Amino acid sequence: MTVCDVLVIGGGLAGLLAATTAAESGRKTVAVSKNHPLRSHSTAAAGGINAALTEEDTVLHIEETVAAGCGLCDRKAVELLCREAAAVVNRFLRNGTPFQWNEERNEPEGRPFGAMSAPRTRFVGDRTGAALMQTAFDQAERAGVRFEYSVFLIDLIKDGSRIAGAYGIRTETGAVEVFWAGAVILAAGGAGALFDVTSNGIGSTGDGAAMALRAGVPLRDWELIQFHPTGLYPSGFLISEAARGEGAVLRNKDMEAFMSRCHEKGDLAPRDAVTRAIVTELKCGRGFGKRGDFVLLDCRNIPSERLSARLPELCDLTETALHIHPSTHLIPVIPTAHYFMGGVACDLDGRALDGIGFPVPGLYAAGECACTGVHGANRVGGNSLLETVVFGARAGTTAAAECTGSKALSPPPEATAAEAAASLNERLTPFLNTGETGRRPAETPLDCRRELKEIMSAYCGTTHTTVRHKQGAAKLALLNRRFARCRLKTDPGRPYNTELKDFLETENLLFLAEALFSAAEERSESIGAFCREDQLYAGATPYHTATEWRKGRFLTERRPL
Ligand SMILES: Cc1cc2nc3c(=O)[nH]c(=O)nc-3n(C[C@H](O)[C@H](O)[C@H](O)COP(=O)(O)OP(=O)(O)OC[C@H]3O[C@@H](n4cnc5c(N)ncnc54)[C@H](O)[C@@H]3O)c2cc1C
Predict the structure, then answer these.
(1) Residue 231 Cβ contacting ligand 1 at under 6 Å
(2) At residue 559, does pLDDT exceed 50?
(3) Distance (Å, rounded) from C-alpha 357 to C-alpha 473?
(4) Which single residue of 41, 96, 103, 303 has CA 20 to 30 Å from 460?
């Protein structure tokens, strides 16, 4: 058993920042992740991090973030986010992040991003996440954070009403590990792996959100999911918004640059609007390909030297996946599940909140698994990396200040470790294939996961209807029954049993899928990224809010600027 002051669950950008500030406050801090921190999804972040460098631009950044969030943003949180941005970029610069530099202005170069009127997204080519993560990891190591990076955490542990730690299994041995802490910070990332077509890695399985929910901590706005407009067809690998920031345009099968007709900001409209426009083009039969199921991204107007210098990852991806170069060929794209705006509700200092808005003792949250209110119903590109840094650091500071130090911590009850092991065994026993060595069971956790992804994409994806929710929930119930019968293949052993991890992740995904169907059904009006199909006007322009629909105002997509 490990006893510490602050336990951070997750080694992505939010987890690293939280752990660093907690350790710098003199707390014994342990950061646990299921993979090496540098393999977290944050490392895949591409286009950049938003930072306005003048007061005038900061005010614009605030207004534009609030407008893009469609009235669901928490304004105080947005102000805090935008006002700390310049300091964040400066800190990363000082610690060695090689931001692209604008010699003329003598400041980090900015590129335009969707929904923004000024080029304020600071970047390192299109590998910004990797650069930030490297710097943040170095800083965390320097601050004395202890890393445990092959432990899969399963559930939170409670001591009365206080969250007092977590337990999981160590990959190399399969042994149960218990972490007992004065404060726990959840920073376990998003749940993009719920969908078939996604920009997220296979590890984005929402484990943190599932742990919180099982411990009785509610999720806020769980149904608000951002589908990024440009995922590579058919896999959904991300083509960063940076491409459109540099001048790329979307085209339908008639080679029409349709975004100029759909939104006044054209290809740099807010993400929800671009995604709806693509869905509409496809529904109206203006998609490309035999089945008309994708549109094209045209980067040919970007000079090839600029493409290689500013979007190297995009050039690599298209060359590897399609054997084409974006300077000469159009890229097939479709909307791809990208980001969960919802998550564990928390206040401005990272305290997790219960259903009536009171802090849950001992629990804090940051990053994509948290819902601070900065994204509202539609996140602006470049704001998530900023959020992980700003609110990750705040959660670390608060947890360090409020936690009971490990020395004063009440000792873990003797039975804690045994109870954790027993509860895991109880969960696993029916799934282990003991005694059936050599016989392959009909279904494995991965079979179920594959089917789950198909169900979610078909019944709870870019657009919603009550009928589809009901059909999807019924299919999910059947899948749950089949999951209860599936078996871990032939390896009943615990060490390096990757199927055990697949099982635990799939269990979390199934649990979160159920929550998603009921949350989606409860939201009866379209807002931001959440679009009810019955409120779709299938005319020249895409979707509108129910109020606009009733008023008959559906000629252009309206959004306060
Ligand atoms: C392809 C892509 C490109 C993006 N580009 C941008 C961009 O340019 N700008 C921007 O602002 N945003 C971007 N985003 C969004 C942004 O990168 C993420 O939202 C953000 O990095 C999430 O950080 P995080 O620390 O919350 O989670 P993650 O980076 O996902 O880290 C989660 C951590 O939790 C650990 N973990 C999870 N479950 C468990 C468990 N059960 N036990 C132990 N550990 C666990 C993982 O190992 C990992 O270390 C992009 C996202 C994607 C997918």
Answers:
(1) no
(2) no
(3) 29
(4) 41
